[in-house]
Amino acid sequence: MLGDPEQEEDFQRFLRRVDEISSLVQDLSSADSAVKEKAIAEAGKRLCDQAASKEGASRTRVDRTVINTGSPDLAEAQTAEAFLAGLEKDAKERAQQRQRNELLANALKEQGNEAFRKGDYARAVQSYTEGLEKLKDKQELYTNRAQAHLKLHQYEEAIGDCEWALKCNEKCPKAYFLMGKAHLALQHYGESRQCYQKMLQTDPQKQSLFKGTEQTLFRTNNGFSLLRDKEAVRRGFCAERRSSAEVDLAVALLLLWQAVCSGNEANQHLLLTDPDVKAQLPKLLSSGVAEIQKETLALISLCSENEYGRRLLGQHRDLTSWLQILMGFVHHRDARAGSAMDILCALAAEERFVAQCSPLLPTEVLPLFTQLLASAKLVNQAALARCVGIVGSLCAAVGIRVQLAECRECWQACLQLLDQYLSSPPQLQECSFEVLGLMMNLLLESNVVIQGLALDISGRCMALLGDQDGGIVTRATGVLSRILPAAPWAVEAAVAGGVVKRMIRFLKVGGEITSTYALKTLCICTRSSREAQEALVKADRRFRVLLKLLDSENETIVGNAALCLGQCLAVPGAAKSLLDSNVVMTLLRHAGGDAARTSVQENSAIALGKLCVAEPRHLLQLRKLHGLTILNSSMKYVHSN
What's the pLDDT band for 59 if we cut at 50, 70, 90? Predict the structure, then answer.
């Protein structure tokens, strides 16, 4: 694979010579006299050999021998000293030359690296080659050139460079790795595996690189045909009733598929598009054998971790049955329930899955879902909470939301779960939180079922307003803000139950989300209930809470605060209580402002008008501020838009 034998021999001779000269120079400087004398003798021998070689090359017919009349010992000493000086000089010159070559080789290596980064692999090969002409024993140049050869699909050349790199450094894991890739591309599977095994021997930490190669070897050697070609494997894997041996076989095959599909999209594609596998996966999930279910869930979960795998799973024809099967794992109290919810959560993000669920939801999925809600204390509650959350996210699709909102059984199961939570608060807290979120989503719809249950729904929410969990309170307030518009009698019951006072308290101490829901609830109650208006004036003396909300940066809060204020100004004394405040200035600023939501200008202008009608002294202040002109211009602008 190295090409020219003479070139290889020349390279080996060069390496040996460098090693010998380096060793000799080191011995000449040794503190050990015996080692030093031996080195001098060896140097003298090399000098004589070199002189004889030169004499043989340039011999003439004239004998010009000069007889040395001096002392033989003196001549020998002078010769040794001269050789040593020449050797040291030669070593320095060689070191300097190598240093220059090293700099040139490194510069050419960087040129090659830059060309490689830009995708100009041919230019990279050229730069690495020029670098090797300067320094033929630089291992990095061989491995870098091998990498460029791989990009150019020049696999034989890549293997040759890797072999040269290993001559420079026999423990170079990169050389083994690149050689393994080249052999793999040439379908030399045995050689490829040997390369990776040697790589692991030199550097065990490179195990992750070898994993991908094992997966490729499994695929290229038709490993996925095992189920199709081996009748015994197929029969045991697909059996309706399995013996213990067949269970072990199915588990082993599932574990094998997990190993070869982990992080490998090509293998996932082959597995999940195989007709037999597609047909068997739902059967394995519903097999009733815990070991098989566990490993099947692990395999599907592994594939659902990446977008490509989720898309492959979403191509199955009967995804609704998957929804039912996965929901059914909520009954299990072990890790299977969590794995099933992981998969369900991943699939719920796929449009195809959502589209397939919609038509069969009422007849096949909703009965199971309501059953799970009704038996909340008997199932895996953590998994049930996640299941409810996933169904809530599916309600982003209008078709699914409409069907659930029209299902009286679903509403009743939700209310039943909330009743169980209210009777024993420490239990079902997470489930109740998710159920309230689901109810908020469903209340984006309006129908007769919701109207008929409005009193029950609002009653449960009123009971939850005193809960110790802030998340429960926030969502209960949100449900109230959406259910009260559905039925006037629900508003009356909520007002009688003290909802206004509770909402004012939330506005004083609650966060922005809770405040948004609470303020909307107050707007709904004060719009139609004089009792609510009077309760608000009494609970929020001089409208301190509402005036503070008018200074909010949230336009929704500002608009609703102005609306709520305007609705309460008909209460005797309400407008008068604001005489010493800056309410006119504040409302005028919003009425003439440029808020994105026109409801801010409209509600502020209406509230300002009601304020001046209820208490004329506010009109005097409005005129001083040229407010009438501002209001006129503002309303024209609002109506034109």
Answer: very low
